[in-house]
């Protein structure tokens, strides 16, 4: 039998994993070490050499894309069809099993699977039926609670009586939700996994059938499994020792959504006769990048330990740039991108990675201003995010009461007791009378047409908009935005949303305040519009242009979490500061800090050829200038692996003579960080300078007037 096609492309460690005897095996696969190849070639080896029937192979992964890739590669390798093989995601395979055994799983044959939006709608109806205040019991928070309980294998009935009122109420909603789903034959994503585990656990004959059916069980990205997923895998392989898992404890970054890094450690306890193989040869990055990443991740105590290496040579040192502020950071990154493209590189080979979605705004604005196409990978652009659109809708209503789209968006956001019937009444009257929704609402309140509860809520909403408009009339733009965030209830709404999603939305609202503070209303204001009107127009325009399609040659912007599994020739990891990355709430929590360090390791190992780390010496957060330390992750990299990048010319930080970079910066009449005076705006500090000759302009942060862009030929600035 000729099996050279299976083993010839493999290195020694990969070959050992692929050809190992059929028993429990943990393959510790470092970043870029070829883990998918090992899984595919292992399955091919078992079919072609070990003689295991294709229909007796079970392979589980986390995305449909990964499952499709696995199928295609097996078919190409063996020239066979994979339609009899069970290859799919946890949710997909669980759904397949439940369809086959719906009655045994106590489900109707016609059960329907709900997506996340459907699930939320069901929860909202239950909250309304239980007469609970959505402001106090946000449906999204309840959804998060229910799914987290299911991920841990817990039903409402499993919980002990508690003196905690909050927990008692959440469990009551969970119980009502379960009853509703059982009555209507609905199954959510978390239920698929829990129900299939219970199906196997409670039906010994069925479990025995599938234990005999699946002679080999393979799992990809094992470090991302949660409690119920691992419990199901253990049931299927109990007493068989036929579980083959590929994972990397150093890339476990999803603890916030239920992944349990403990599973990869417990595997060795639960499968005592297992074999451990480490894949450490990296085929992606240069030696300097790998050495730096190895050193950073070695600071974690809870890890199994491995050392990535490559035959590709050391490559360029890691570049470190200390920006004057976040504006300078964005300017530097975009200039380096332009230099890369000018030298023949593609924009699609570049990624800007950040810890928080809120950080994207500065880079989006700079990329747009230079005409550089970009794409926000796996997420929305800043001004397209729901929480930002909600805040802007309040501002638009303050500027124009007859903006129907904005009215509909926030009439019940946050929830204020206006049901679908009341809102439909407003729509019908507006259509009937040919007036705006605001005018129709005023008529309904005046005529006392809605129910007393709806009338009170509607009148309260209209009064809120009027008060916000009056109270913010004389305030600076950023103060208006800040007041709207608070008084609208949006801040409280996202504070009560559990998990990282709520924190991320709050960060975005803060960044909206920063955007308003830095907004220059004097540029191109030929219509003499108000600052608020100009800002709203600016937001609308930024939400509409320059977003590249999937296959365009455009720069990729994404969070570090979204970057896992991807690779780019040029990577910028930005905002490398204490309090930002690692996040402030993780600094004193060893478990969270180690996950943040793993996230840093993931980010660094996305880079193939060149890695830039940037941080700002000052950054405006919550309306205040902060002076953060550089991230501890930077300080954990050996100095000999880092090359500090400095701008040349006269754009210098005060008292800081500097070296050169690979691109030229025009010499200007003022320096970055220099104190200047202006006849109207008073004293300020130069933040940024661009252009030359008649087009030369400076961005200046004035003590009293805030940040302004001024044309230097006309500004008559005086150096102080």
Strand content: 5-15%
**Order of adjacent strands in the largest pleated sheet:** 11-12-10-13-14-9-17
Count of helix runs: 27
Name given to the CATH architecture of the largest domain: 3-Layer(aba) Sandwich
Principal-axes geometry comes out as flat
Question: Low-confidence spans: pLDDT under 50, at least 5 residues?
Answer: 648-667
Please state the average pLDDT score: 87
Approximate helicity band: 40-55%
Rg to the nearest angstrom? 29 Å
CATH topology of the largest domain: Rossmann fold
Oligomer: single chain
CATH class of the largest domain: Alpha Beta
Structural class: alpha/beta
How many domains?
5
| Corresponding CATH superfamily of the largest domain | P-loop containing nucleotide triphosphate hydrolases
Number of strands: 22
Largest sheet: 7 strands, parallel
- Roughly how many Å apart are the termini? 84 Å
């Amino acid at each position: 039998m000729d099996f050279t096609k299976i083993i010839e492309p493999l290195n020694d460690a990969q070959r050992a994993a692929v050809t190992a005897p059929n028993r429990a095996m943990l393959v510790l696969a470092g970043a870029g070490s070829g883990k998918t190849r090992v899984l595919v070639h292992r399955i091919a080896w078992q079919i072609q050499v070990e003689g295991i029937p294709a229909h007796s192979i079970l392979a589980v992964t986390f995305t449909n894309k990964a499952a499709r890739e696995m199928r295609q590669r097996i078919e190409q390798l063996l020239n066979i069809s994979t339609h009899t093989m069970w290859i799919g995601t946890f949710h997909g395979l669980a759904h397949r099993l439940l369809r086959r055994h719906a009655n045994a799983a106590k489900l109707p044959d016609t059960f329907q699977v709900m997506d996340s939006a459907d699930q939320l709608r069901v929860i909202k109806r239950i909250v309304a039926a239980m007469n609970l205040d959505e402001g106090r019991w946000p449906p999204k928070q309840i959804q998060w609670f229910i799914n987290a309980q299911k991920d841990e294998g817990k039903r409402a009935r499993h919980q002990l009586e508690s003196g905690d009122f909050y927990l008692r109420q959440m469990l009551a909603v969970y119980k009502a939700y379960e009853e509703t789903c059982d009555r209507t034959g609905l199954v959510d994503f978390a239920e698929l996994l829990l129900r299939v585990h219970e199906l196997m656990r409670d039906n010994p004959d069925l479990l025995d059938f599938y234990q005999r059916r699946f002679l080999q069980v393979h799992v990809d990205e094992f470090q991302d499994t949660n409690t119920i997923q691992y419990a199901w895998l253990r049931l299927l392989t109990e007493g068989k020792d036929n579980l083959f898992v590929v994972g990397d404890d150093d890339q476990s970054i999803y603890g916030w959504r239920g992944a349990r890094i403990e599973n990869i450690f417990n595997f060795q306890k639960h499968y005592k006769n297992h074999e451990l193989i480490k894949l450490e040869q990296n085929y992606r990055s240069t030696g300097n990048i790998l050495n730096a990443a190895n050193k950073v991740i070695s600071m974690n105590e809870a890890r199994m330990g491995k050392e990535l290496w490559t035959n590709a040579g050391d490559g360029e040192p890691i570049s470190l740039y200390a920006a004057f502020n976040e504006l300078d950071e964005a300017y530097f990154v975009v200039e380096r991108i332009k230099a890369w493209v000018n030298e023949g590189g593609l924009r699609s080979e570049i990624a800007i990675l950040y810890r928080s979605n809120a950080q994207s705004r500065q880079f989006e604005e700079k990329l747009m201003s230079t005409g550089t196409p970009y794409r926000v990978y796996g997420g929305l652009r800043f001004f397209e995010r729901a929480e930002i659109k909600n805040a802007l809708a309040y501002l638009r209503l303050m500027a124009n009461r007859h903006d129907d789209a904005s009215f509909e968006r926030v009439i019940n956001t946050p929830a204020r007791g206006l049901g679908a019937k009341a809102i439909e009444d407003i729509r019908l009257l507006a259509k009937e009378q040919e007036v705006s929704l605001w005018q129709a609402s005023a008529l309904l309140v005046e005529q006392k047409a809605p129910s007393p509860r709806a009338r009170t809520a509607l009148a309260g909403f209209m009064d809120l908009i009027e008060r916000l408009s009056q109270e913010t009339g004389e305030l600076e733009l950023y103060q208006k935005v800040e007041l709207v965030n608070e008084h609208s209830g949006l801040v409280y709404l996202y504070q009560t949303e559990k998990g990282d999603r709520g924190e991320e939305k709050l960060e975005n609202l803060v960044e909206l305040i920063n955007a308003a503070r830095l907004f220059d209303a004097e540029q191109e204001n030929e219509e003499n519009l108000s600052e608020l009107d100009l800002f709203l127009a600016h937001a609308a325009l930024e939400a509409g242009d320059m977003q590249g399609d999937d296959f365009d040659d455009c720069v990729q912007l994404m969070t570090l979490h979204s970057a896992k599994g991807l690779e780019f020739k040029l990577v910028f990891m930005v905002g490398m500061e204490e309090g930002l990355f690692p996040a402030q709430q993780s600094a004193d929590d060893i478990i969270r800090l180690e996950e943040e360090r793993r996230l840093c390791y993931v980010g660094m190992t996305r880079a193939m050829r060149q890695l830039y780390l940037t941080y700002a010496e000052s950054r405006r957060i919550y309306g205040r200038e902060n002076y953060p330390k550089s991230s501890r992750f930077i300080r954990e990299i050996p100095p000999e692996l880092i090359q500090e990048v400095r701008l040349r010319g006269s754009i210098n930080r005060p008292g800081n003579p500097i070296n050169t970079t690979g691109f030229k910066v025009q010499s200007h009449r003022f320096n970055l960080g220099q104190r200047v005076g202006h006849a109207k705006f008073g004293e300020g500090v130069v933040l940024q300078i661009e252009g030359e000759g008649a087009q030369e302009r400076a961005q200046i942060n004035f003590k009293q007037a805030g940040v302004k862009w001024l044309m230097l030929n006309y500004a008559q600035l005086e150096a102080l």
